[in-house]
Amino acid sequence: MDDPLMLDANAVAGDLAELLGFEVTGASHRCGHCGNVAMMGTLLAWTHGPGLTLRCSICRDIVIRVVRTPARTLVDVSGAAYLEIISR
Amino acid sequence: MAEPLAWQIATVRAIRAETPTVSSFTLELPAWRPHRAGQHYDVRLTAGDGYHAQRSYSIASPPSREGEVDLTIERIADGEVSPYFHDVVEVGDRVEVRGPIGGYFVWEPGLGGPLLLIAGGSGVVPLMAILRERAANGARPSTALLYSSRTFDEVIYREELDALAKRDRELHLLNTLTREQPAGWTGYTRRIDRPMLSDAVGAAGKQPLVYICGPTLLVEAAANGLVELGVPASQVRTERFGPTS
Amino acid sequence: MSDPFVSRGFVGRPHADGNQSGRTPPGQYLTNSFPVLSAGPTPQVPLDSWEFTIEGLVKAPARWSWQEFTALPSRDWTVDISCVTKWTKLDMRWHGVSLDDLLAAVEIDPRARFATAHSYGGYTTNLPITDLINNQAFVAWQYDGAPLEPAHGGPARLVVPHLYFWKSAKWVRGLRLMEEDEPGFWESLGYHNRGDPWREERYSGD
What is the pTM of this model? Predict the structure, then answer.
């Protein structure tokens, strides 16, 4: 499935780090749909839209969505079973 | 990560043409911190009316150079940010940046090898940071770089790559020129395909760590090809550049 | 307090239309291109399995195959389109069938007030039925005289020109008519429930 619009989480790593407060691409997650466990850097990104969509590289289902409005930013992580942040 | 990264204003200290459409920009950073090979900086341009345009550019320089980083940027014809760098920016100009960023597409010597690096066009930039870091370090794992460019003149860092390979028997360069080749060219002359990937895996060594960077379609084709060749997907890291600016 | 940083000599792509032609809604700029925006991979739908369905609060669902659908009475539509990402394109030429003709094929339950458009690939968007009728909406399978490309929503997409373009569901596969409104893909994450560009209804709370 060749989609030249598709990027990966590296392209939005800085914005996500600013939003979520940690380096996202190196952090692990479990896809809520297929159970795949992988670093969030593997998530496929569609950045050209009303919002950002990050999808599982295995099942292509949505893991994270982000919408930025002037007043607030909405982050939907309902597609992730968990995000893993390593303590220092 | 200790604290969230903040935007800082960097100063352009040098501009170096790598190819007719690619230049490296040395940025001096007031709040520099050491990066890892493979990471990038976000760059944000602001117009007078407050409009922003933001892009990510991979760091080309190795972490050993303190206080500054090199970003190698290809001029995309109908882009918004890269033409600004090539057509407007001069030494002494200031640029807003944020970084270093990235926790997945990174390599440090502790990860070892063998290494298989696959690049399409300006996707070679973060892989060059890896090669420069590897060269500066003691241990030199067996490494192959499979690099796809359209023409000879568009091979970024060509002379430096040749020099690195000449003095390092563990570094193997495989180049393919897909559009036009000079007389006497002995490299590949086609898009990356399975036989080429098989050669590259052979040159790198058993069970390589793989880093692929370039346009999305090239990255997809290479990653899928490697998995078909039996390279475990968990050993393959990818960074996709879009078709945009 | 220091002045905000400005990049010397940077203007950027067109992002505001100083010359409001009267046809450009507030906050929009005019474009001659047709930007492609997406939230996921482009679905590949073979025409021999494509279907359009109207179901939900109807006496009986209506279903069309591609052959049947494109044989319906159809016409050209020339309309202005505004995307919430700020571009507006004037006089876009489409060809397709009006929602009035499609809805005439079902007996709508009087309780039905809202519709959710469903697309191949999972996208959804919601609209009051009143925004779909009276020549306000159509399903198009041609753009600019040629078959609608997958990147732009082909084989067929919903087009609702008087609302922001996210309501014009690409790869549409049908409508579900409902009594209660159910926010769709973007409406459930901060975008305005209705999306009227002339009232600049971009985000919920606008």
Answer: 0.93
